[in-house]
Amino acid sequence: MTAPSYNYVLNGVFQRSLKCTLVKKRGFLTKKTGIRYRTSNFDNTNSKSDVLKVPNLESENTYIMKKLFSFLAIIAIIFASNCSRIPENNDPVIGIWSRVEVEATNAAKLTVRHEWIFNDAYLGRFHRIENGSIKIKSDFKWSLNSDDTYTISYPGLDRADDIVSFKNSDEKLLLERVDGFMLASRE
After folding, report:
1. Helix and strand numbers, DSSP H then E, in the chain
2. What phi and psi, each to the nearest 5 degrees, are found at residue 170?
3. How far is CA 31 from the centre of its chain?
4. What is the pLDDT at residue 65?
5. Using one digit for the tens of pLDDT, what is the confidence trace for 118-171?
6. 91 φ, ψ (degrees, to nearest 5)
7. Residue 50: which of 24, 12, 6 has the closest Cα?
8. What letters, b where the CB count within 10 A reaches 16 and e where it falls short, cover 141-157?
9. pLDDT tens, position by position, 75-115
10. What is the CB neighbour count within 10 angstroms for residue 160?
């Protein structure tokens, strides 16, 4: 067990010392470390002394534990900030894909544009635009299958999942369904 440590108040000034004792030498107060403090009435035993011995409420173990916990907190912050990186997704399907259909009727001409916006978080946005106004706007999920095909599912829409693969044409890269229908081309 360690010896108790004390704090000292000398002439109104607080002095923190661990395991330190004050010794009277020729009218001076001297720490064991050799630092000397002059007191005016140290020798006068009838009056109050300028030295007040106060027990130290912080032990050495508490001091060391505070330093240790501070160090561990810094290490934990560094560790948490370095481990929160999201892996980069460089899949070739990421981007904007679209298909334009023109339907001619007796009364008017209807232009329908289907647009898929694939992002790197395996999600995307689907739009159906008729004559410049958005008729359907919905999110979709996509995934890469083991046979190099992609599954596009539309939760919340009454639409079947699309299973597509890449097809190269002379001009553009196409997304083609497994039944041979050209779903979209890259913009």
Report:
1. 1, 14
2. -65, -35
3. 50
4. 84
5. 998 899 999 999 989 999 999 999 999 999 999 999 998 899 999 999 998 888
6. -65, 140
7. 12
8. ebeeeeeebbebebeee
9. 988 887 776 667 788 899 999 999 999 988 778 888 999 99
10. 9
> What is the tens place of the pLDDT at every residue in 19-34?
445 555 455 555 544 4
Rg (CA), the chain: 40
Rounded CA-CA distance 187/117 in Å is 10
CA terminus-to-terminus distance, the chain: 77
Number of Cβ within 10 Å of residue 119's Cβ equals 12
Q: What is the mean pLDDT of the chain?
A: 76
Structure tokens at 35: 């630092």
Which domains are seen in the chain, by residue range? 6-65 (no CATH), 95-186 (2.40.128)
DSSP string over 33-97: TS-EEE-SSSS-SSS--SEEEEE-SS-HHHHHHHHHHHHHHHHHHHHHHHS-PPPP---TT-EEE
pLDDT the model gives residue 46: 42
